[in-house]
Backbone:
């Protein structure tokens, strides 16, 4: 299996393979935890009232708002 399969996408967003792995795992864990909170909120509407929306806002900031510029192309990473 060519190494390019593991490095092409991370490089396209300005990350190394390990950096992308860390970031993607962080996003995934955050989404799973927020998802469980939303499921519990469905049955217990008094619990986790803002957990899902706060997670979405936080992840959006990490992915879109706070991206660093890719120096070689001038495009957002």
Residues:
């Amino acid at each position: 299996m060519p190494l390019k399969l593991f490095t092409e996408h991370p490089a396209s967003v300005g990350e190394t393979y390990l950096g992308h792995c860390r970031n993607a795992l962080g996003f995934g864990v955050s989404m799973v935890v927020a998802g469980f909170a939303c499921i519990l909120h469905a049955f217990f509407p008094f619990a986790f009232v803002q957990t899902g929306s706060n997670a979405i806002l936080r992840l959006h900031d990490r992915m879109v708002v706070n991206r660093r510029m890719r120096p070689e192309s001038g495009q957002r990473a």
Q: What stands out?
A: Residues 15 and 61 are 17 Å apart (CA to CA).
